[in-house]
Structure to design on (261 residues):
């Protein structure tokens, strides 16, 4: 009997995507409510696609030895919760099959998420932190200049302005944005103007790992607005290019096809 262990932590099956390291299940980019023991049971099945995972194996993996609970009831409740979230049923299963008196089997084949080997980034619309709403144009212009500068980097794929700006004013998880735009990193920032002084902040976020790669602050005297935008945009592009040269592995992941065994 073949036991298949996932080498990657982010896998897709049907319309669903499971992030095993973060303990999250998503459908078309939307996070679903599946946590705790139900998710751990699902993770155990995902680690062994096509193989019958015995009830005893699930007990040892999910329920600690010193936990005094009705295991059978707990496991049945967890599987029912998984099926509810997946829209599955025990009678006509599409995802999880019950093997009477033995255990459960994941019926779907898996695909590890494999983003492009070329580093990819999306630049979100910079936030306007100034009290004057007219400075919104200044923030948008800053974002556009950054996009234009990044597009000059041959080894970098940049999401189109129309795509990245579609999230303006929306509170969307960066991981979801990264999935929808198919990019590994997101550049976000803010613009604040006080008289003839301009402060621009920018930070680059790894959307899959969930941490900042770098952040910078730029303080400038606002004489020629376009000149300042160009200067800061070039500085951000140069900083990101250095990050690409030194930490390319942070932007790319090598995925494999996971087959049921």
């Amino acid at each position: 009997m073949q036991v298949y262990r996932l080498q990657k932590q982010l896998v897709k099956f049907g319309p669903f995507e499971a992030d095993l390291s973060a303990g999250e299940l998503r459908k078309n980019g939307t996070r679903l409510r599946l946590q705790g023991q139900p998710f751990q049971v699902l993770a155990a099945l995902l680690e062994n696609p096509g193989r019958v995972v015995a009830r005893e194996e699930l007990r040892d993996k999910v329920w600690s030895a010193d936990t005094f609970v009705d295991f059978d009831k707990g496991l049945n409740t967890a599987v029912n919760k998984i099926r509810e979230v997946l829209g599955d049923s025990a009678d006509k299963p599409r995802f999880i099959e019950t093997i009477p008196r033995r255990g459960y089997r994941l019926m779907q084949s898996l695909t590890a998420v494999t983003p492009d080997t070329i580093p990819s980034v999306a630049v979100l619309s910079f936030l306007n932190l100034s009290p004057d709403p007219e400075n919104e144009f200044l923030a948008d212009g800053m974002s556009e200049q950054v996009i234009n500068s990044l597009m000059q980097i041959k080894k970098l794929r940049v999401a189109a302005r129309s795509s990245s700006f579609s999230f303006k004013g929306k509170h969307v998880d960066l991981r979801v944005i990264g999935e929808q735009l198919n990019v590994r990193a997101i550049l976000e920032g803010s613009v604040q103007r006080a008289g003839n002084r301009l402060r621009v902040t920018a930070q680059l976020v790894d959307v899959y790992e969930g941490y900042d790669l770098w952040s910078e602050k730029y303080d400038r005297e606002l004489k020629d607005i376009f000149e300042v935008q160009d200067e800061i945009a070039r500085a951000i592009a140069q900083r990101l290019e250095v990050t690409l040269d030194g930490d390319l592995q942070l932007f790319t992941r090598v995925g494999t096809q996971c087959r049921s065994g």
Summary: The chain has two domains: 10-112, 120-250. Helices lie at 36-46, 55-62, 71-86, 136-150, 161-164, 174-181, 225-246. The CA atoms of residues 75 and 119 lie 42 Å apart.
